[in-house]
């Protein structure tokens, strides 16, 4: 039985483009800009927190060659 290898990684949100792509900071300091803002309540809440100037951490799930932003939390360490 084959099972997919699923990983979850958290990235700080740097920006949201006009066409709803997320700009995320990778651990090496470079940026990842190929993920769309999720549709629905999760995406709405990410945009709301970002527009309020809050530091947002985005949780990205990766499996079988696909990645998608699936969760968020406010960064309260700063």
Task: Tell me the layout of helices and strands.
Layout: E1 7-16, E2 21-25, E3 31-36, H1 41-51, E4 56-63, E5 66-74
Antiparallel strand pairs: 1-2, 1-4, 2-3, 4-5
Architecture overview:
13% of the residues are buried. This protein has a five-stranded antiparallel beta sheet. The mean pLDDT is 94. It contains one helix and five strands. The protein is mainly β.
Placed side by side, the strands forming the largest sheet appear as 3-2-1-4-5
Overall pLDDT metric: 94
Q: Provide the β-strand percentage band.
A: over 45%
Q: What's the assembly state of these chains?
A: single chain
Low-confidence region ranges = none
* Continuous helix count: 1
Shape: globular
Question: What's the number of extended β-strand segments?
Answer: 5
User: Helicity range of the residues?
Assistant: 10-25%
N-to-C SSE series?
Answer: EEEHEE
The largest β sheet comes out as: 5 strands, antiparallel
Termini separation comes to 45 Å
Q: Mind telling me the C-alpha Rg?
A: 13 Å
Would you tell me the structural class of the helices and strands?
mainly beta
Keywords:
single chain, mainly beta, five-stranded antiparallel beta sheet
In short:
This protein has 78 residues and is mainly beta.
């Amino acid at each position: 039985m084959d099972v997919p290898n699923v990983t979850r990684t958290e990235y700080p949100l740097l920006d949201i483009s006009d066409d709803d792509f997320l700009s995320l900071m990778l651990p090496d300091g470079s940026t990842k800009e190929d993920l769309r803002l999720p549709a629905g309540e999760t995406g709405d809440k990410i945009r709301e927190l970002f527009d309020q100037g809050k530091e947002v951490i985005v949780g990205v799930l990766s499996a079988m060659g696909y990645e998608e932003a699936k969760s968020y939390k406010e960064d309260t360490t700063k």
